[in-house]
Amino acid sequence: MFESSQNVLLKPTECWRETLLDSRVMELFFTVHRKIREDSDMAQDSLQCLAQLASLHGPIFPDEGSQVDYLAHFIEGLLNTINGIEIEDSEAVGISSIISNLITVFPRNVLTAIPNDLFSSFVNCLTHLTCSFGRSAALEEVLDKDDMVYMEAYDKLLESWLTLVQDDKHFHKGFFTQHAVQVFNSYIQCHLAAPDGTRNLTANGVASREEEEISELQEDDRDQFSDQLASVGMLGRIAAEHCIPLLTRYTQSRETPWSKCSLFKIPWRALKVFKDFKHPHPVSQHTGTNGQKHTHDCVPWLVHLEPRHYSIDGREIMENMV
C-alpha cells in the first residue's frame, strides 16, 4: 500500500531545473502510471513519484510564473489520468496525497493564477473524489476492514478542504458554496440511517455490526472523528444557509429517547437545545428495535456538527456555523 509516512516534500537544487520543469518529464510519469495502475505494487511506486512531484518547491523555481506553469501542467496531467476511470483501492491514498501536496505546498496566489477553467475542473474533481471516498470509507466501517485505505484517503481530502477554504481571500465570495453543499450532504448521508441516509443499511450482503460490538469496539465518535468533523463543520459554515436548516430538519424528524444520549458524551447545552425541539413530522416506519437503534446512532452525528472547538495539529479552531 501507499506509504503516506514517506510523503517527503521534494526540494531539489537549481541543477535539476531543466529536467524537472520540462513538462514532457512530468507527462512521462503520468503515462507510466496509466500503463501500470492495475498492478498495485508498481502503481505504489509511480504514485509515490507523482506525490513528490506534486510537492516540488524551493530554488528550482526561478520565479512565480514558472510555478504557475508547472502547477497548471501537473493538474492537467492529473485530471487526464483520473477523470473518467474507476479508482483502484490501491490508488486512493496516493491520489489523495498528490492532491493534498498540491494544495498545501503551492501558495494560494499561484494556485489561483492557473487558468480559471482548469482550477474549476480541479475543484470539481476534488469534490467528486471527496464524496466518493467518503462513501467507500463508510462501507469500510461496515465491513470492519483492517486496511482502511479509503478512510485515510478521505481524511486527507477533508484536510485539504480545510486548508483550501480557510484562506478564502483569494477566491470570490460563494465560489466554494456548491462544493461545500455536496461534501456536507454526502457526509450527512453516510452517517444517517434510512430513509435519509445509508448508515446501517444491509445491501449486497453487507450488514452492520451488532450494537454490542459497536459499543465495545468503537471509541467515542466525536473524539475518533474530530478532524473530519472540524473539516465538515468548516464546509457547513461556508454553506450555512443550506446546512443549518438541513441539520434542524433531520433532528426535528427523529424521535429520540434522550436518556441514551449520555453514551455519546453530548454537551449538556447542545442536549438542552435538541430536547427543546418539537417533532411535528410523523415518525418513520423504521421505528422497530433496529429502527430505534439506527435513530439513536444518527442523532449524535448531527449534534457533533454543532459549533465547538476542535484541535487540528495542535491548533484550536472554533467552528461558528451560525
Automatic annotation (TrEMBL):
GO terms for cellular component: cytoplasm; nuclear pore. It comes from the Eukaryota. One of its GO terms (biological process) is protein export from nucleus. It is found in: Cytoplasm; Nucleus. InterPro entries: ARM-type_fold, XPO4/7-like. Keywords: Cytoplasm, Nucleus, Protein transport, Transport. GO terms for molecular function: nuclear export signal receptor activity. Its main location: cytoplasm. The keyword Electron transport does not apply. This is Exportin-4.
